[in-house]
Write a structure and sequence with these properties.
This protein has helices at 3-10, 22-36, 40-53, 58-70, 74-87, 92-105, 108-117, 125-136. It is mainly α. Helix 2 runs antiparallel to helix 3. The longest helix is centred in the N-terminal third of the chain and has 15 residues, at 22-36.
């Protein structure tokens, strides 16, 4: 199964918040269009530039991690997610992504640790976490 297919199957897509600042929303839309067009390198360039202007934009950083995964660059995806986790250890999404990434790499102990500790209290994140944990069973 390809990275893109598994990401879609697990449902680890980015939630678009209606309250996004216009600049962030525009950068996210442009990067998603590049990903949809099969141009992850262009999406990465767009997102890196946008994050220089808005470094606290979590949605852009998550999308950057996704773009790295689509481009086949798991180390940079992992680094991006680890930076997000370090910035906000109570955020569910980076931990789900890190758990999924370790699962994909066959590092099952690490995947279980990330997923077991992920503070996902609301749907659909709880369901995503449960699905990923079920894949470890």
């Amino acid at each position: 199964m390809t990275v893109v297919a598994l990401i879609g199957a697990v449902g680890l897509c980015l939630a678009t918040s209606p309250a996004l600042a216009p600049e962030i929303a525009a950068a996210q839309a442009a990067a998603e269009a590049r990903l949809d067009a099969g141009e992850p390198a262009a999406a990465i360039d767009l997102l890196k530039a946008a994050l220089e202007r808005t470094p606290d934009a979590t949605s852009l950083a998550l999308l950057l991690a996704r773009a790295y995964l689509v481009a086949g660059n798991e180390p940079w995806a992992g680094r991006t997610l680890a930076e997000l986790y370090a910035r906000d250890p109570e955020a569910c999404a980076p931990q789900l992504w890190l758990g999924w990434l370790h699962l994909r790499q066959g590092a099952l102990v690490e995947a279980r640790e990330w997923l077991s500790e992920a503070p996902c209290t609301e749907e659909p994140d709880r369901a995503r976490r449960a699905l990923l944990l079920a894949l470890l069973a």
